[in-house]
Amino acid sequence: MPAAAATLGNSLHASPLRDGARTHSVLELSVLVLNRSFVAVHVVNVRRAISLLFRQLAEVVHVEQGQYASYSLENWRELSQLQAELRAHELAHGKADDHVLQDWVRAIGYELQAPRVIRLTNCDRMPRQGLRFNRRNVFARDGNRCQYCGERFPLSELSLDHVVPRSRGGTATWENIVCACVACNVRKGGRTPQEARMDLIRQPVRPKRSPLLALKLGNPRYESWKNFVDRAYWLVDLSEQVS
Ligand SMILES: [Zn+2]
Fold it and tell me: Ligand 1 centre and the CA of 154: distance in Å?
């Protein structure tokens, strides 16, 4: 194991960064994971990605102006060092480019740029196909908004509602389950929207891609992911711990 990697592995730190109103650690940011054939299979956090790099199970895939380049942890560290110097130089000369969204992981003596995409060099696994129909994905599809009153709620105050009640043969499908606040759910009871005179703000449909992934793709930080997930219809599952 290279000495630099060992140092890094033993001394990972990340400075908190401001992301809107929310402060979180660089180590908790998301990294897209590709299999050996550059197919997106998973999403992990920076901490996990660095651990995979450190164990030489993965390499960084860096996308710049539409070109891909692969880096071992050691090479990525060198590139990061060079970029840190360039950034320092630009800051000193007042021409730092605010549009470059980079996040930095600090290790003893140097900084490592947080990877956005890594590739598992020994993995031929293909992504799970199909979108999982679960609570989290329904809430994400509906943007945590009650589909009757149109208000947004914290997850703890949301429930799933059968549009056509189970007692009337309504099934648990993307087309018949919506996000509803507790008050609306209780008010609607075992009735159809027509009977309850409660209109849906939007007709529920099966999403074309993972609603959680769609949220990530809207964030400029994960711009480079589009190179791997736009042309694929693969539905990447986001793991629970990823922010
Ligand atoms: Zn409601």
Answer: 12
